[in-house]
Amino acid sequence: MLNTHDIKRANAFAHIYRQYCLHIPDVRWRVNRLENGPPVGYVLQYRVSGPERAVARGDADRIAAVMRANPYAAGVHLDTAEASNASRIDIDQDRARLA
Q: What are the residue ranges spanned by the domains of the chain?
């Protein structure tokens, strides 16, 4: 999410972001204006996802580098340093029915 002081800055950033995202293959993105909403922890947040974690992480790193190059951006970081834990549970259907 991006919070700007006026609509001209919001529109300018939306245009720049749209142009940048066009050059990232297979990225799913959108730019929408939010009229109202609860405050968030960061002024700007974005999510990058895809079927291959390493590819999505590389894309997120490139976007973060663009953000860090902006002199008005501070504290740019990624919150996906650790891989998510996953568990698989196989249920013995016969025993489950007995329970």
A: 7-80
State whether the Cα torsion 33-35-39-43 is positive or negative.
positive
Q: Which of 82, 57, 81, 77 is nearest to 67 (CA)?
A: 77
List the structure tokens of 93.
């259907």
pLDDT recorded at residue 86: 72
What pLDDT sits at residue 83? 65
What is the per-residue pLDDT for 23?
Answer: 81
Q: What is the pLDDT of residue 65?
A: 92
Asked if 48 and 59 count as a contact pair (C-beta separation under 8 A), the reply is yes
- Measure the CA–CA gap between 43 and 80, rounded to whole angstroms: 18
For the chain, the straight-line distance linking the first and the last C-alpha, in angstroms and rounded, comes to: 48
- Which tens digits make up the pLDDT trace of 46-56? 888 888 888 88
What backbone torsions phi and psi does residue 38 show, to the nearest 5 degrees? -70, 155
92 residue type, one letter? D
